Amino acid sequence: ACLCDSCADTMWTLILLLVLPLACTADLQERVCIGTNGRMSVPSNRDTHYRNLRDRFTNCTYVDGNLELTWLQNDTMDLSFLKYIREVTGYVLISHVNVRQIVLPHLQIIRGRTLFKINARDEEFALMVTMSSAFTLELPALRDVLRGSVGIYNNYNLCHVKTINWEEIITGPNATYVYVYNFSAPERDCPRCHPSCEAGCWGEGPENCQKFSKT
């Protein structure tokens, strides 16, 4: 009986040794998701809209098309489903999002194969953040916007984006960084970057220091 117990223990150990590495690497497997093209259209049901975004992008690493985060106005909404996204082939649009922190910790590349255009500007944008009350937009891994400009338009509370060296990130021809704040109320008094940051940051803490890959 003891021998059988020992055999059983050994068998379970072997099974765990085989299964655990698979479980640990499951999060790293590539998953392509198809992006959206709704621009800033108002959804008929915003809770359903949130669930659709969550279902579409959960465990996604590569967005084929645009990543549009719009009309997420409940500040308790959980956006952690975005955490594995590393690349977006189109544009990233963040509009009317009231979640306190917008975090895409692994987003490295926005290709800008399709761009976002607003009537008031000549530029076409690969990254547009507008009319949102988020306190931080945390993109600590972002190193390349390959085509198109970056626009930060009329966000009530957004901090730290002006500390970022966007020239390090924007590489497309004739692309630029545009910051607009037209509200009568003064901009929020933002906390400083962590002392370990060489220059700019995406938010508080050393994990949000801007990483420089080209200089």
From TrEMBL:
Residues 1-25 form the signal peptide. Keywords: Signal. Residues 59-169 form the Receptor L-domain domain. InterPro entries: Furin_repeat, Rcpt_L-dom, Rcpt_L-dom_sf. This is Receptor L-domain domain-containing protein. It comes from Pectinophora gossypiella (Cotton pink bollworm).
